[in-house]
Specification:
single chain
């Protein structure tokens, strides 16, 4: 009687088994909310698997750490400054439409908006890269 001692090689790479998910988190939704979430899961290509959809949403979202109080105050002040700039821009646009003379260049004010946004995001600890060529008309 002959025994077969040949080694068998499997093609492909070795895959570690996924750990079994044993922890359960309960979440209550209305029927309408559940239907909306299932539709969003379908749109995302995850079927109607809400667990996979929720896991995907949570794991792929950047959650910034809370900003220090001083940054929050500065952020609020920058928001007020930005609002003032918007009001100035509105007044200039209105004057131009009515044919009235304007002493300030609208381009100078528009150039401040992305800079204000960059400062706001930096204060919140979020990355932002200003690209001056992004807003240039082609």
């Amino acid at each position: 009687m002959k025994t077969n001692n040949k080694k068998v090689f499997k093609a492909g790479r070795k895959v570690e088994p996924k750990p079994k998910r044993t922890s359960l988190i309960s979440l209550r939704l209305t029927e309408e909310e559940k239907e909306v979430w299932e539709a969003k899961a379908e749109e995302a290509g995850l079927g109607n698997n809400l667990s996979k959809f929720i896991r995907y949403c949570v794991e792929n979202r950047h959650i910034a750490p809370p900003a220090p109080a001083i940054n929050s105050d500065t952020y609020a002040e920058l928001g007020r400054i930005g609002n003032n700039i918007n009001q100035i821009a509105y007044a200039i646009n209105r004057a131009v439409k009515m044919g009235e003379p304007v002493n300030t260049s609208l381009a100078e004010i528009e150039a401040l908006k992305p800079l204000l946004q960059e400062v706001k995001l930096q204060l919140l600890g979020m990355p932002f890269q200003y690209n001056p060529l992004k807003n240039v008309e082609k």
